[in-house]
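For the sake of clarity, the format in which proteins appear in this thesis is described at this point. The record quoted next illustrates the convention:

___
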Amino acid sequence: MSMGACAELSRCFAGVSIRPRPNKYRGSCPCTSSCNGVKFVYIHGAVEELRIGSIASCSHVKPMSRDSVVAGASNNNQGLTYKDAGVDIDAGSELVRRIAKMAPGIGGFGGLFPLGDSYLVAGTDGVGTKVMLAFETGIHDTIGIDLVAMSVNDIVTSGAKPLFFLDYFATGHLDVDVAEKVIKGIVDGCQQSDCVLLGGETAEMPGLYKKGEYDLSGCAVGIVKKDSVINGKNIVAGDVLIGLPSSGVHSNGFSLVRRVLAQSGLSLQDQLPGGDVSIAEALMAPTVIYVKKVLDLVSKGGVKGIAHITGGGFTDNIPRVFPEGLGANIYNDSWEVPPVFKWLQEAGNIEDSEMMRTFNMGIGMVLVVSPDTSVKILEDRDEQDKVYKIGEVVRGKGVSYS
């Protein structure tokens, strides 16, 4: 083990250290009829995430952070945008387009690798600049749940059951107490998703991070039978969109969140306007892990497509599961929008379209189901297990609201 300026402290709970192979972009899509074997498939999970494999774009914490830091000034007479806060979703989409030329097949929520009569499904992610609020609030025991959630929620969109998770914790100076809290959250997240924390890596890199700072990334791998893959190919106009509620902002859009907070005149300790918790509690609420709920619904049949609502919000994520020529119509006021989003929009004077493209707005996962299946799901719901009929599949392109 090298003991230079960057000391890597390997953690491996199963006795095996797993490291990335050097050639990160070889491969072809296993989901096409022309597929004749796959070496590696790397996935761009969402348009906000300016990263494939080891490529990252972040001006604050490198290389693992997804969100950029606050950058540029906004005209006080105009509503704030994600781009004002330093994150350009269109640039992320352009990067995906360019990388797709080198690695055909990227763009899904998870990458599929053929293994006998099944697919291994893999996803990787981080928690973005939400870690900066963890530094400020001192809340470190839930950020690990966010980390696990961002990957397992991606791979379950294929109908895959998560098998194991690996994490990467990087810091300038290792604070064992803080790291233990973070990893406890990761363990909690793995328990919620019924997968194993197989191992991880701790990197202590003096000079790269400020005192008290760290960054996180992780990777989840799951499995699904080839004849049970959820891929959206059977979606038709008239199918129904079922929304599963979020706990709040989850782990996307925090560059804009921090910008709004900075200009609102409020602090993290203040009560959330319209809510019964502090702003810190609302923003640090851990991402919902949907694995068990989604797999239960999939097991009952009728689920044709699943979209994880992360970077890109409704606008960019829902169409990713549709065949060509189909779009979505979202019913306004068809679900409960949490107070945190109402505050963010009002305090930041943010346009509706920007909110829908940046945040989950209270819906963290969307299932595309047949009309008959939607009736069964809605009949089975209760107050503790809320689901919403939020829209339908229509002919056309993109997402409209009515």
